Amino acid sequence: MISEKQLCGAWTLESWTIGYSDREDISAPFGEEPDGLLLYTPEGWMSVSINARDRARLPEDVSFARIPPELKAAAYGTSFHYAGRYRVEDGHVVHAVTHSLNPNFTGTEQWRHAELDGQTLVLSGKDEVGGITRFHALVWHKLPAPGEVEVLPG
């Protein structure tokens, strides 16, 4: 069973896939090569940020307040972030969300089943949207601490 100590550190995202209860296909919400960083601290805090790799940049010659809403929506639609406290319970990591890009996440607990194989962490969970159950699987690889040698998977 996974422990807080094993989680501590920085993790880079390999993949995020979603399966569905009403069909056989699997989707990758931020593409085949998402860009993600997951942090767990010894003090019990966590933060996760996931982005599509091909995000369009916002105009640099316009103040943020004057950028058209549709450009902001497109930028935020290709990014996902939340942070808060975490704890480990019976093979699950529970994220108690205190901050989120999605205001509906703040104040929720996000339960993730956790499996660790060497330097690879798989977090899985499910949710329901419109009567359809979605099954999420995120594959993370541990990043080396400063001064450590990186161990590559495979």
Give a structural overview.
8% of the residues lie in helices and 50% in strands. By secondary structure, the protein is mainly beta. The longest helix has 8 residues, at 69-76. The protein has two helices and nine strands.
Question: Any key phrases for this structure?
Answer:
8% helix, 154 residues, single chain, globular, eight-stranded antiparallel barrel
* Main pleated sheet: 8 strands, antiparallel, barrel
Which whole number gives the mean pLDDT?
94
Beta strand count? 9
CA-atom Rg in angstroms? 17 Å
Span between termini = 22 Å
The count of helical stretches stands at 2
Q: How much helix is in the residues?
A: under 10%
Globally, the shape reads: globular
Q: Can you write the helix and strand succession as a string? A: HEEEEHEEEEE
Low-confidence stretches: none
**Within the largest sheet, what's the order of strands?**
1-3-4-5-6-7-8-9
Short overview:
This protein is mainly beta and 154 residues long. 8% of the residues lie in helices and 50% in strands.
Layout of strands and helices, then pairs:
Elements: H1 4-7, E1 9-20, E2 26-27, E3 35-40, E4 45-51, H2 69-76, E5 79-89, E6 92-100, E7 109-117, E8 120-129, E9 132-142
Antiparallel strand pairs: 1-2, 1-3, 1-9, 3-4, 4-5, 5-6, 6-7, 7-8, 8-9
